[in-house]
Amino acid sequence: MSFHTTEPSPLAAYGWDEALEAEFTSYRAAGLVPARVVAVDRGSCDVITESGPARAGTRPVASPDPAAGPCTGDWAALRPGDQPELAHLLPRRTAIVRSTVSREARGQVLAANVDTVAIAVSLTDHLALGRVERLLALAWESGARPVVVLTKADALPGGTAEQEAEVAAAAPGVDVVACSATTGAGVDAVAALLGGTVVLVGPSGAGKSTLGNALLGADPETGALETGAVRERDGKGRHTTVRRDLLPMPGGGVLIDTPGLRRVGLWDAAEGLQQTFAEIQELAEGCRFGDCAHESEPGCAVLAAVEDGVLPSRRLDSYRKLMRENAWMAARGDARLRAEQRNQWKTISKAQRRMYKERGRDR
């Protein structure tokens, strides 16, 4: 069935648009069909196509680089048939990338082609502002728009104004909204801030799946996304979400629920950090030295703001920590690339020596 009909594409509900259709012209001419990756398993994935859901192989697009292989949210060119498989991945408009859990010098894509990143923060836990800032850096770096959602607001009968203000101070330029998915209070306000492809991120026990069910119009506890209780002894939740899924929301757009993130390492997030700490970047323009590290340099406008109480010292400490981590990962990435290039040249040199040796034998 051709996309160019009076009927909208069934993929429109999953984000397919005219720009993607134009980009897909050559693939259609080759007999391929568009598909969006819903969930990825080893060697295969679930996709949604114009004809409905399908199971497809991923061997043609597999890559040893964790950031280059298929992931939830990817648009792909699918080769149909008895054994469908992904033939090509379309260029990503946005991608949420963190360092691999093993702390190798590689990035791992959590979700692709995301428009809004909803950062879930539980109001039943201590507000870990450093973790919020870390997730904000990843969200800004991805090219998507972050929103901070304070969940489980029903646990604070006295209101959430104080917590909202505290988080807002750590998230300049970002909408911060509180809600209770269990009672439904504030869920409409959250939904109004979300658009396009939305991904829910946060630690286990933050209430992501419960919120996701409410946004999907399902029962918060028994809907499409599995939920779990939080342990009383430490306030942490179980990893009830074990893979990423992509589901259409009744008001438009699609939702990606991710597993709880125990550790979120930065990966090439310099621009994301600049946006996350926008006020520090603005203050730094008044420093005496252009390369000021805001440690002990004379004429440092950032340190002066801390002394004057304009900038919280916690905020500067978090900025320094995340900047150091990002620089360290960037250095490791450069070292890995240099090592790969050396190995590649060694392989080429060996092949050339072998070729010259064989030529000498033929003479």
TrEMBL record:
Residues 112-262 form the EngC GTPase domain. Binds 1 zinc ion per subunit. The keyword Nucleotide-binding applies. It is found in: Cytoplasm. The keyword Zinc applies. Residues 102-264 form the CP-type G domain. Keywords: Cytoplasm, GTP-binding, Hydrolase, Metal-binding, Nucleotide-binding, Ribosome biogenesis, RNA-binding, rRNA-binding, Zinc. GO terms for cellular component: cytoplasm. It is an enzyme of class 3 (hydrolase). Belongs to the TRAFAC class YlqF/YawG GTPase family. RsgA subfamily. This is Small ribosomal subunit biogenesis GTPase RsgA. It comes from Actinomadura litoris.
